[in-house]
From TrEMBL:
Gene3D superfamilies: Rhodopsin 7-helix transmembrane proteins (1.20.1070.10). GO terms for molecular function: G protein-coupled receptor activity. Keywords: G-protein coupled receptor, Membrane, Receptor, Transducer, Transmembrane, Transmembrane helix. This is G-protein coupled receptors family 1 profile domain-containing protein. It is a multi-pass membrane protein. It holds the Pfam family 7tm_1. InterPro entries: GPCR_opsins, GPCR_Rhodpsn, GPCR_Rhodpsn_7TM. GO terms for cellular component: membrane. Its main location: membrane.
Length: 360
């Protein structure tokens, strides 16, 4: 066995901790992101343009758990690279590709929220389902090309890094590594986080200015949309909490230390896997539509049906909901309503007295 495929010596307690933690992150990521995709598939009301980005993030998190996450966990458990170099190179490519794709998708989501709340008159023109999916496809191709270009130009290759315990780029020269690292930090970290911060700042400012969403509801921005903006801001904030320390550690290892002990370097893949777990937890706790759908997935059909009937019959809002449902059945939707459903907006009827708190 080549020494380049073996991990540095570790204590037994540290091996157990790393192994259990990596397996737990894989399981949580798989379960959580499968729940998100299942909820989007089962509930047509969740299939709007914004949730296209949420679905894209869930898919990237699933891929991260299945390929790089599995290789990372198996390496920590065995103390060496278990799978061959072809899978190692695929894993290295996916680590970079999925990371940059997630960052840019978060940025697109922030821009989406900006136009939905601050510029609602332009939202329907800019963010149709077809256009949103087309943007994701173009983004996929551009980022794939960016990640692959060092290999195509013989500037670097994906190799197994025993200190990191997973596969990453090894560059042919220090200058090539510096150019690639600086480009990544400037474009995918500084620029993306700046756009996210600016967009959500204007979103929060607009909501506060319009009396916590009451006036916005008159412009077609529902309380549900405002709540979704808040949830997505928290998702972006949690994402930044994972990735800013990751790139700080990368810069310390590559620029300051020119190498690092395993205990410091292994923080990077652990933070990458942690970011794949956070999104489903945030949606499940803070997003009422996803929370309701998750509850339905774990509730027997007969109990869910009886619970819905009882809650509708016993509460004033439930009675109003039943009345609105009867009205909608008796009166087909107008041309404007059908257009709204066609572009996936799916906004719920709101009451002017409802208020939503926004805090940044």
């Amino acid at each position: 066995m080549s020494k380049t495929l073996l991990l540095p010596p570790r204590s037994l307690s540290f091996i157990v901790f790393e192994s259990v933690a990596s397996i737990a992150l894989i399981i949580l990521s798989l379960v959580g992101n499968v729940l998100i995709l299942t909820a989007l598939y089962r509930n047509p009301r969740l299939r709007n343009t914004t949730n296209n980005y949420i679905a894209a993030l869930a898919v990237t998190d699933l891929l991260s758990a299945c390929v790089p996450g599995t290789l990372f966990a198996s390496t920590l458990i065995a103390g060496r690279l278990v799978f061959g170099m072809p899978l190692c190179r695929l894993s290295g490519f996916l680590v970079h590709f999925l990371t940059y794709f997630s960052m840019t998708t978060m940025t697109l989501t922030a821009v989406n929220r900006y136009f939905r709340v601050v510029r609602p008159q332009l939202y329907r023109k800019l963010f149709t389902k077809t256009r949103s999916r087309g943007i994701l496809v173009v983004l996929w191709l551009v980022i794939a090309g960016f990640v692959f270009y060092p290999t195509a130009l013989d500037m670097g290759t994906f190799t197994f890094n025993p200190v990191l315990s997973f596969c990453a780029y090894t560059f042919a020269s220090q200058s090539a590594e510096t150019v690639f690292t600086v480009t990544v930090v400037c474009v995918f970290v500084v620029f993306s986080l700046s756009v996210i911060c600016v967009c959500y700042y204007h979103v929060s400012k607009e909501i506060r200015r319009h009396n916590v969403g009451i006036r916005l509801s008159l412009q077609g921005v529902s309380v549900q949309e405002i709540n979704l903006s808040k949830v997505l801001f928290i998702v972006a904030f949690a994402f930044a909490l994972c990735w800013i320390p990751t790139f700080v550690v990368v810069l310390i290892i590559r620029v300051i230390l020119d190498g690092a002990p395993h205990e410091l370097a292994v923080v990077i893949p652990f933070l990458i896997q942690t970011s794949s777990v956070l999104n489903p937890l945030i949606y499940g706790v803070l997003s009422p539509p996803f929370r309701r759908e998750f509850r339905r997935l774990f509730t027997p059909k007969w109990r869910a049906r009886s619970g819905d009937i009882n809650s509708n019959a016993s509460s004033p809002t439930g009675q109003i909901g039943l009345a609105l449902e009867q009205i909608s059945i008796g009166h087909p939707c107008t041309g404007d309503d059908s257009r709204r459903q066609g572009d996936g907006s799916d906004e719920l009827a709101q009451f002017p007295s409802l208020k939503v708190a926004w805090s940044v």
